[in-house]
Each structure stands twice: as C-alpha cells, then as structure tokens.
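User: Design a sequence. Structure:
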C-alpha cells in the first residue's frame, strides 16, 4: 500500500507514549488487502459515483474480504460499518467542490476586523464575565445570536459567505458561539491531550468544516493561538484510509479528548491512526514541515478548511487566556447526506 501523505502514516508502535502498551493486532483478516481493494474499486472515483454505487461497491468489497470470518472483533466490524458512512460524507463534499482548495495561494485566509465590527460580541462577553458565568480555569462556551448583531452579520454575509460559496456549492446558514479559555492553574483538563507539543493537532472529523475564528482580545504565544501546518491542506489524501481513520477516531476517543491506547493496540496496523493526527504520527512530520501560529490583536480573523488542514485550536499555558468567536455555516444538503450515511451504516450493521 502506498500512501503519500505523511500525516496518514502514523507509527504508534514507535512512540514513547505507547511504550507500555502491548500490540495484539487482529488475526484472521487482512485489512491491508481490503483497503487496497476499496482503493481500487472506489478510491479516486469517489465523486464520479452515485451514493448507491458507492454503497454497492463498498458492500461487495467488504463482503468478499470478510467472507465468513468469525474472528473479527466487534470493534473492527463497527469501524468497517462506520467507514461506509464516512465515505458517503466525503463523497458529498467532493461532489459539491467547485475548486480544489479553499485558498490556492495560502493555507488560511485572514482578515483584521475593525473594533466597530466586534464591539457587540465583546460587550456580550463582558456581560457574562460581570455575571460570573465565565470559568476562571477552563473552557466556557456560549451560543451567540449573530442575527442580533447586524454589523457583524453583514460582514459574514458579504465576505465570509462568498469565500466559501466559491469553493463549495451548498446552501448555508451561519451559526456562532463564543469560547473563553482561562488557564489560571497548571492542571487543566486539556493537559492529557498533550503527550507532546503537536499531539492535539488534528483534522476535523466533519468534511464540511470551514470555521471562522475571530479573536476578541490579544492572543500571544502563551494564550493558545490557532496553529496550523502550512501547506498540509494541499497534501493529497487517501480518502479510503481517511474514512477508516475517521471511524477509528469515532470509536477510540474518550470523554477528555484523549485516545484509548489499549483499543488502538488491538487494531490491525492499517487502523492504528485517527483524526488526531499529531497523536498518531508523533512530532516527526511536524518538524519536517512549517508549523505556523496566528498571533494577533482583537479582530484578527482566520478561515480554514478544517477537514484538510492539520491544525490545533490551541489551549493557553498557565496564566494565559483566549477569548474568541467561532462562526460556522450549517449546510442543509450535507445534513441530508449525513442522515443517508447513518442509514447506510445501520443497514450494513443489520445485514451482517
Ligand atoms: Fe479543529
């Protein structure tokens, strides 16, 4: 199997934090062979197939490879069922794309919003702080009603929306929330995610992920700035593998955002990877590429393709804090595909 994207080639067995873990792998079934079969039957033709053709091709390949094998653990079966749903969702994105990348010239888009545009949302946060609703240590999230903020909404509709519409052909509704992260103590809930400096770098698990982050106060080195691996959005991805790894992610993430190492160790080699790419690859690929941080004052705004760009929202170090507005779009057509994908997954589970 040849994979060119260095972020899809995790080698967890070689990582320090997997030292004490014993790897079992799975016997009786060749996942590599299945992966190659899926790649040749589906792989690059993903956007040229109807959803039904995709489901049929997937079921055929899996049925042929799995056969009557009875020694596949349930978790591996679940991963196989969920992979189908992920492929359907990725296909939806591929079909609606009008251009290859969100931005051909760079990996992110940035703007500097004038204070006038963020005055209402900043006031909103100050009110919450006055009412004691913002945690002094940890993450506080508040929904924000954009429709009541006419100036910011106008900017979103006139600048952010057309940027995405140039990339994907979809209907869209903006939704927003404010995230305030304060790190007054060293023992924060996000610490387990940082086995090493890059362990929380990830791909978003939703194909339609084009978040806009607006800093609402100064963000420096210690404040958990948004960080990303420059040009990682331009690396070609093996979507069959990605769909499998998305499934591994779905079944191996624990409540605190860490990955269940014992579960990973039981999976076959090809499945020892997930959307938390930094965790699975270790620091190696990050040291080969250019990791950039977005530092800036209030109004600094970033837009990126979360499904393709390796990035980290960042958590502050002790004494740091970050207050930002996140704006996303809902894509109604994509939601329909998501339902269809869930149904296909359930159908496959039912038939097995
Ligand atoms: Fe993300």
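Assistant: Done.
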């Amino acid at each position: 199997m040849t994979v060119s994207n260095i972020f899809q080639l995790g080698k967890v067995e070689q990582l320090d934090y997997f030292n004490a873990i014993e790897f079992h792998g799975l016997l009786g079934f060749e996942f590599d062979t299945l992966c190659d079969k899926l790649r040749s039957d589906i792989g690059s033709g993903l956007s040229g197939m109807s959803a039904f053709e995709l489901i049929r091709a997937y079921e055929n390949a899996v049925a042929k490879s799995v056969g009557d094998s009875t020694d596949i653990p349930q978790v591996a079966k679940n991963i196989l069922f969920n992979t189908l749903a992920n492929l359907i969702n990725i296909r939806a994105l591929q079909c609606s794309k009008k251009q290859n990348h969100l931005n051909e010239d760079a990996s992110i888009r940035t703007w500097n919003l004038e204070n006038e545009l963020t005055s209402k949302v900043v006031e909103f946060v100050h009110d919450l702080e006055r009412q004691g609703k913002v945690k002094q240590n940890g993450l506080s999230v508040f929904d924000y009603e954009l429709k009541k903020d006419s100036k910011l909404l106008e900017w979103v509709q006139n600048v952010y929306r057309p940027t995405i519409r140039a990339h994907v052909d979809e209907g869209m509704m903006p939704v927003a929330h404010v995230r305030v992260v304060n790190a007054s103590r060293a023992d924060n809930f996000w610490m387990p995610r940082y086995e090493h400096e890059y362990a929380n770098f990830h791909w978003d698990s939703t194909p339609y992920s084009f978040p806009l982050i607006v800093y609402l106060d100064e963000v420096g080195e210690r404040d958990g700035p948004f960080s990303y691996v420059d040009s990682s959005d331009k690396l070609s991805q093996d979507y069959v593998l990605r769909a499998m790894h998305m499934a591994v992610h779905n079944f191996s993430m624990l409540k605190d955002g860490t990955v269940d190492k014992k579960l990973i160790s039981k999976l076959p080699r090809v499945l020892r990877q997930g959307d938390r790419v930094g965790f699975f690859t270790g620091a190696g690929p990050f040291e080969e590429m250019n990791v950039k941080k977005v530092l800036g004052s209030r109004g600094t705004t970033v837009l990126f393709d979360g499904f393709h760009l390796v990035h980290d929202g960042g958590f502050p170090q002790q004494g740091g804090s970050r207050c930002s507005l996140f704006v996303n779009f809902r894509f109604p057509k994509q939601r329909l595909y998501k339902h269809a994908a869930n149904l296909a997954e359930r159908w496959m589970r039912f038939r097995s």
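The first strand starts at residue 109 and ends at 112. Strands lie at 109-112, 137-144, 173-183, 212-215, 226-229, 291-294, 300-303, 311-312, 321-330.
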